[in-house]
Amino acid sequence: MLLSLMIFVPLLGMIVVLLLPRESEELIKRVTLLFTLIPLVLAVVLFISYDRSTAGTQYFVSVPWIETFNINYHIGIDGLSVTLILLTALLGPICVLASWRNIEKGIKAYMALFLLLETGMLGFFAALDLFLFFVFFELTLLPMYFLIGVWGGPRREYAAIKFFLYTLFGSVLMLVAMIAVYLNSGVPGERTFDIPTLITLAGTEGHALADPGFQIWVFLGFFIGFAVKVPIFPFHTWLPDAHVEAPTAISVILAGVLLKMGTYGLVRINMAMFPEGIDFFTNGVGFWGNSLALLGFINIVYGSFCALAQTDFKKLVAYSSIGHMGFVILGLAARNETGVTGAILQMFNHGVISAMLFLLVGVLYDRAHHREINGFGGLGNRMPIYTGITTLAFMASLGLPGLSGFVGEALSLLGAFAKFQVLTILSTIGIVVGAAYFLWTLQRVFLGQLNPKYEDLPEINGREILTLVPLGVLTIVLGIWPHFAIEMFSESVTKLTEIMGTLQASL
Amino acid sequence: MVVSLISIILLCPLAAFAIFALLGLAKRNFPRQDYLSTAAMLVALVCSFLLLWEVVPKPEPHTVDWISLGKITFSMGFYLDSVTVIMLIVVTLVSSLVHIFSIGYMHGDPRYPRFFAYLSLFSFSMLFLVVSDNLLGIYIGWELVGLCSYLLIGFWFEKDSAANACKKAFLTTRVGDVGMFIGMMMLFARFDTLSLYGDNGIFTRITNPEYLTADASGIFWLSIAGVLIFCGAVGKSAQVPLHTWLPDAMEGPTPVSALIHAATMVAAGVYLTARMFPILTPSSSLVIAYVGGITALVAATIAIVRFDIKRVLAYSTVSQLGYMMLAIGAGSYVAGLFHLTTHAFFKALLFLGSGSVIHAFHAMHAHHDEEHANGEEHKHDDHSLVHAHGSEIPSDQDMRNMGGLRRKMPWTFGTMLVATLSISGVPFIFSGFWSKDKILGGVLGRAMEWNSVHHYVLFGMALLAAGITAFYMFRLIFMTFFGEPRNQEMHDMAHESPWVMVVPLLVLAILSFPVVNKWWFNKDNIIRPEQPHIHAPQHAQLGPDTKIDGANFGIAFFGISETEAAEEEGEKNTKKADDAYYIHKLAHNIAMVLSIVVAGVGILLSWLFYHRRRFSAESVATTFRPAYNLFWNKYYFDEFYDGVLVALTVWKSRLFAKFDLSAIDGIVNGVATITRQVFAAFIGFFDNRVVDGIVNRVAEVTWAAGGRIRRIQTGAIQTYLFVVLGGIVLIILIFRAL
Amino acid sequence: MSLQHYLVISAILFSLGIFAVLTRKNAISILMGIELILNSCNLNFVAFSRFVTPPENIDGQIIAIFGIVLAAAEAAVFLAIILAIYREFGSIRPDEVDTLKG
Amino acid sequence: MDFTLKTFIFYGFALLTIASALAVVTVRNIVHAAFALMVTLFGVAGLYVFLQADFLAATQVIVYVGGILVLILFGVMMTSGRLEMRIHIERGQLLLGGGISLALLMLLLTVIANTPKWENLTDDGTAFAPTTKRIGELILKEHFLLPFEVASVLLLVALIGAALISRKEVRE
Amino acid sequence: MDYLENIESLAYFSPEIVLVVFAAAVIILDLLVKNRESEKVAYLSLVGLGCALVAIIVTHSSLGTDESKNLFWGMIRLDGFAVFFKVLLLLATAATILFSLRSEELDARLKGEYYALLLAVTFGMFLMASSTNLLMIFISLETVSLTSYILAGFLTHSPRSSEAAFKYITYGAVASGTMLFGLSLIYGMTGTGDLAAIGQQLPIVLAEGQVTTLGILIAITFILAGIGYKIASVPFHMWSPDVYEGAPIPITAFLSVASKAAGFALFLRFFFSGFGNSEVMQSIDLGLLLAIVSALTMTIGNLAALPQRNVKRLLAYSSIAHGGYLLMGGVLLANSDPDIVNKGISAIIFYLVVYFFMNLGAFYVVVLIANEAGSEMIEGYRGLSSRAPLVAGAMAIFLASLIGIPIFAGFFGKWVLFTAVIEGNLYWLAFVGLLNSVVSLYYYARILKAMYFESAEDTESFSFSKGTFALLSVFVVPTLLIGLLNIFYSLSEKFTLQ
Q1: How many Å apart are CA D108 and CA A403, to the nearest integer?
Q2: Which chain C residues are Cβ-neighbours of B713 within 8 angstroms?
Q3: How many degrees, rounded to 5, is the angle at CA E476 between CA E474 and CA E481?
Q4: Given B718, B722, B732, which is nearest D107 (Cβ)?
């Protein structure tokens, strides 16, 4: 009930916002803030009351929905989802605050769409019915399309449609795979979309779902769907465009939550449901056995090098996201507790850190109206607080120990090394390059002589600091005491690794 | 008690920084950040001394589970043995003194409070590194000190050279860190833990004789892991080939150079290598020894030709660090640590002294900065990532502008002279002599014991480096404090520094005498570190060349004579150890004599060149032009990195970006064309979707297909009828064939 | 005079109708072609009714009657539309009526 | 098969039908084509007679020749000043059209030749029974009442529609 | 087979009778009413439709559950399937009448006949949905076609409309002539016109070697020409873009929904009853044939829609594509598992319901914009989000649904279809279908883009009456809700053919 309430409160908020008159903008903003704060409170309650000692799902609700297809409104949370739900709920109000001043037109529609988006995201992480899962997955598409397309930058139309097309393409493959899973889950009448049931069935010897051949191609179907979202190498090109064009808050959501939907799906569906499939792609034998890790490696190195080449601040951050998601993939490919924990932690941390980075880019953009890295210089003197926070975010992102980015990255790599020595070692190139582009950016923007054009650039204001502080605190806290997050999902991860039948591999 | 003391030591500086950061968010500064930070450091210092009495014979790690994942646990904790406590004292002591010095030195800087906050953060990180009982914790501290180093080198970030230098420092050390991380991964993959001590720790496990029998490839892996972890030290301790950042790091304020780039952070690499000593196999040890030896020699030769007072000291630091590495690589890790300690004090002293000199020109300095800001056009260098080496020497650091300062700055001169004597290895009353001698003796002993050519070569390098060190250090002294002032204007302006700066110099000067060390490291207080090690018999099996000797384990520490240590060895070990004892004793004596000789020669030459001017340095430089050029250009390391590595990286990233823009699109385009031709009837659509989703291209192809279909829709009804009836015929014909 | 005779005639008529529809450059000729097609169908029905079904079953003939009726109705509407086309376009050439396309 | 008068006449009708149909699709003059169509329709009516469908033959003549053909002629008159339509027909169109129709013809002939059910069903010479009454019963009393009624609606619609579309004055 | 005779049948025939009576009444009222107030006529037609709806419900309930009756000596059949289509068609007609009321294209003075024709075409479609005899199939098809030609050409002052009618009738006449020839071949093979009897006879004669597969193939292909042209499937689709563009918008809407639905009713019943035997189907590989046709239909429809700038024409192509999706369900008729066949049919039924609301809704917006902006071109939609936010929002919902994005009904429709297709092991077809939905995104999104991302030079906002919004919401609400409610899924299963 609590969970359902949390999911649908933003939807209710959307209706309320739609009913408000268009002119009363302040009211609309406040109402939206309120309706994003409620899920946050509820998410915190869930987070606190979540029983960390079991891997099972909690707070589950299962109500028959479309009985003809045995589709249930089945939601629940385990450690993995509650973490991401907290992230989503946290970013909600932050994004509303970040949109407070810089959305000039159509604030009502903007806020309404944003609330719809939040419902989609929250629902996605809580869904335990494959169909519901898919519906929520897709539900985020349309609001996102409009949010980028209407409130975005100069090439927003292109970026929006590109985003839309890519994601739809991916989800189409996912849909086929999903239907195949459903149809193979039993005889007519006993078919099911229930994720826990399907996981059990897929692990039952002799069941149609457990057939390796079947699992491999279904795995691929889901994988491509999620890969577009993550995004994984050949499917990534929508991301920089979408990020560059999207308004700040939407970039934050995009990087903070939407990308996580892809990796979350990989964990929740691909790994848990298709152990044979994941085994085929990550058993370390031959090309296919290394393919997933290879993709992770490519993401890391490719994303980092692309980031290095960027001169647009936001694009740089966008490419860095690609690189960082590569660590998630690499960690997942390891399939051991260390790697998977690292990957999940990295998901959460990247959500926090990239949100910070995009917010920071937004702060600068709002003042200077451009994002050309070479166009700045010496801002460190002019905006010391901003510089400080940016340095913190950069350092977190480049994996400085003591900040959260490090823990996930390190665990992913440690886990992956057990299995993919060469690829993991090569992936560490990403660490150096990551440091390189962030430091270089830091230098070009903040160090050196102050560019005389920006002598009057105002310092970051209180509202902006307010959006950044919670994220910064999380970054530091999780860097110092990651157990805080890890204890939420360590049981789930243990269960997951058991499902995948892999023990901690050693050299 | 231990935990709470260490907690206080760690938390004090951290709190000092946190207060600064939190107030900073509210756009405020604590008015007396300097006192706050200094006080925090002093508290830590006191606690460090208190810890001396807490060290127990069998140290146990104090840990908490940091991350626990089912079967695997990453713990965080402290490990307190004598090495730790010595390091703690060194760090807190030097740090406190630098804090005090900075109150005077940094006075009037616009970011004065921030400087102290950074220093506090650095102290915290360094202390954390020192006390950590596991590799992960060490790595965390390791990176954090890197961050602080970055922040402090770039403290005057308006200067492009500083901005470049700080970035270079961070990046270069990160390259090494990645190596270290890979090494950690290898260890983790083998042991499922990164803890070093405790029942399940790596050290405990490898000392188990069963370890190597159970795992045939163990030694091989361990060698690689050892070298990789040493990579981290190569980066941090500025060993060849990653040493280039350290001279550039002199762009930071001088107290920073003293604290971070002389006494503590750069020594962390040595500390780490010493800590990891138990896992170092003979082959990895040899690598370490060579890297150290080469570094010692290369850096020393470069230092001869520098004119920037700070750069000379920087290269000297590199060289001395190489010494320490050499010691560890040769198995005399105690000697290495001993040198670390003595070096920390006298090198910090040298830096602070040079800072004092520079401070003397402070007015000049400010004046120049202003000129610099106004006169030079501000521009960014887009192409270079590690581009800091080309900077000009600031006039206030150029030794060619100095001279005859000993009368103007007697305290500074006196203290610096003590330090110089110490580093040059002037015998018996200076600590540097003892530690350096111990290294030389250790290396020679190893060479004689094993009859190993490698170690003879290494000994030769070390000896040569020792001579050169004496030469260039006295060159510095002569050029700075003796002779006639070369720049009268600046000379007139110079003055002795205020007492806050002089007092630290004095304290450090006192610490450069071995008596003091003896007083601290009284035998009764010191517990010998019980370092476990890979079980020796296993090494024996690997052949004589890879054999490692147990003689250095459980040796006494500072102030305890070699004899005493050897006696204990003798008690413990068999006859073989007796041989080793005598060999080492002999080697020690030979080395002592040789080191005194080379130091004397170095000082003498220096005196002849730079004080008596009996020879002209210029003419020698002309005579040995190629060598001079090599030294002057720092063996072209920077050029190499810039020219090859950096260009390659930038080129690669550009390529990737281009690839993203054109190549993938191009591939899609090409595939689209082929597909269109192959499946012309199928309108080249379906496969493009599968191949890739680059929207533009696919859209174009689909669009073109749409346009093609449009053309069939001519508007003439009979065309339509043709399609219908032709379609019917086609369907029938096709399906009839099926 | 077997069934096949009639069927062949009908097939020929059908093909000719198709040919007319496809190639004639006058809307009315197309209509004639359509009439040929319909006639061939009717002929088929009647022939089948005569030969395939029992003699008393004359369903085929009745279908043919309805076919004729429909043909008439269709012709009427067709011609009306041709008139409208002629009014609007001044021509009844089918390939000149092509403003809607693409 | 004995070559009786009956067969002779049958072949005559068949030939007439096909030949005139060929004329319909080939002659340039549309009025000529219309007359050729009339011949075809008569020919088909004749074939109906051979098939013992007397009522149908009559209907064919009345409706087609009396109705549709007249309608077509009216259409010709109203849409074309010149009776002769000298229109260049593209060769490609002709070839393609011919090809398609020929292909269809071949296919149909193959089917006709290869369907055993339709083989060897010759006119057994059963006595001619008038069909009119039976047709009337079927249409008005039995199975085909509904189609009949629907056809009436259809005709009504066609009537209204044809009138609507062809009237001129709607242009304002 | 038990038939009802003519008089007995009348009671079950009341909906059709009501329609015909009202059609006549409309014409008479049109003559009587002064000033040609078309609204009255329209309302009378609506009343007629209402009465027909009541009649449908009454007859259906008198039928009892799961029962069916063969009326008029087996000419038509009254079953759940027919009832479903009748209701759907009737609602489509009602919607068309309401659209026509608001459309400014139509000549007000001629609306009497117009509405009468609409009622007549509905009548024809009712019969199409229930015919079980070759003759009835043909005659009902012709009734619908002829009326449609007239309606398409109704704007006599518009060359486009006349051209549409001309193309439509030429095309239709050839197609239906071809179909009639095919029907005659079937008649010749089985000696009967009754679909059920054909369904029994055909496998027998085929098994006996009496007929060849080529014969059946030719017959079926010919018949497909007639049916395919109604549902606008490749290669029989070519008329539809031109006709849709030229015809009055309400008629376009009507044709794209009602005509297509009736075509599918006919298609399903014909193949289910006449060729329900999978041996016959497999002998000519009908499943593959239909699958290819279906794949081509959606692909070509979607591709050709891409470059369109006229929204009406764009929607015409889109409706071709949707015909292709629907046909996927038809492909399953060839499956040997009757359960899957039924799933296919019920998927089509479900999709038709969904399609009804979203497509008609979209066309309604086209009507509204054509009235206000005077343009059917995509440029006319620029800045609609600010000029008429509610209408733009509704259009966005329809388009999203047409794309097939969850939670909109279109997604669930596709979902049901694809599930059925995949269950029939036609993965490739499902794949093609899904890729097509991705392509379709592109052109639908262009309308979205025009409405939301671009701004018009003229920023004056449009004003619409409350009735407009009420009618719009009639389409919006089901488009939002149908997929979410289980009842529609179970209903669609209930109305399949038995």
Answers
A1: 81
A2: 101-102
A3: 100
A4: B732
Q: Which residues of B677-702 are buried (b: 16+ CB within 10 A; e: fewer)?
A: eeeeeebbbbbbbebbbbbebbbebb
Q: For residue B295, give every residue at least 6 positions away whose Cβ sits within 8 Å of its Cβ, in sequence order, or none.
A: B238, B239, B240, B243, B318, B319, B321, B322, B325
Chains C and D touch (3+ CB pairs under 8 A): yes
Give B617-621 contacts, CB < 8 A, sequence gap 24+. Answer: B621/B305
Find all residues with CB under 8 Å of A123, minimum gap 6, and list them.
A7, A75, A132, A135, A136, A139
In a domain, residue A446? The reply is: yes
Pair E401, E410: CB distance under 8 Å = yes
Least CA distance to B720: which residue of chain C? C22
pLDDT in tens, E50-98: 999 999 888 888 876 667 888 888 888 888 888 889 999 999 999 998 8
pLDDT of B90 reads: 84
pLDDT in tens, A386-395: 888 898 899 8
Portion 132-161 of A in contact with B at CB < 8 A: 161
Q: What is the pLDDT of residue A454?
A: 80
Residue of A12, A222, A241 lying closest to A122 (CA atoms):
A12
Domains of chain C: 3-96 (1.10.287.3510)
Q: Hey, what are E347's tokens? A: 């998927």
- In chain B, which residues have their Cβ closer than 8 Å to the Cβ of E217? 732, 735-736
E strand segments, E30-165: 69-71, 76-78
The single-letter code of the amino acid at D119 is E
Task: Single out the residue of B184, B288, B187, B298 nearest to residue B631, CA to CA.
Answer: B298
Q: Test C15 with D33 for CB contact under 8 angstroms.
A: no
Nearest to B732 by CA among D106, C15, E437, A344: D106
Residue-wise pLDDT for E161-208, tens only, equals 888 999 999 999 999 999 999 999 999 988 888 888 888 888 888 888
Chain B contacts of C99, Cβ < 8 Å? 715
- Copy the structure tokens of residue E486: 């289980």
CB contact burial D81-105 (16+ within 10 A = b; e otherwise): eeeebeeeeeeebeebbeebbebbb
Per-residue tokens: B122:
């650095």
* Average pLDDT, integer, range A341-369: 89
Residue B101 contacts residue B38 (beta carbons within 8 Å): no
Residue among B106, B144, B108, B151 nearest B123 (CA): B144
Q: Helix, strand, or coil here: E107?
A: coil
Looking up tokens 């279904």 gives A218
Report how many Cβ contacts below 8 Å link chain A to chain B. Answer: 185
Q: Are A117 and A249 in contact (CB under 8 A)?
A: no
Q: How far is CA E80 from CA D7, D112, E86, E443, in A?
A: 53, 39, 10, 37
On the 0-12 / 13-18 / 19+ scale of CB atoms within 10 A, D130 is exposed
| pLDDT tens-digit series, residues A201-233 | 887 777 888 888 888 888 988 998 899 888 887
DSSP bridge partners of B195: B134
User: For residue E322, what are its two tokens?
Assistant: 């949707």
Q: For residue A199, what are the domain limits? A: 151-506
**Separation between Cα atoms, residue E416 and residue E394, nearest integer Å:** 24
Taking a contact as any Cβ pair under 8 Å apart, which residues of chain B between 21 and 50 contact chain A? 21, 24-25, 27
Which H/E stretch holds residue A66? Answer: strand A58-66
Q: Round to whole Å and give the CA distance between A274 and A283.
A: 13
| Beta bridge partners of residue B75, listed in sequence order | B65
Residue A47 lies in a domain: no
Domain count, chain A: 1
Residue A93 falls inside a structural domain = no
Asked if the structure places residue A134 within a domain, the reply is no
Any idea of the CA torsion for A29, A35, A37, A42, to the nearest 10 degrees?
Answer: 180
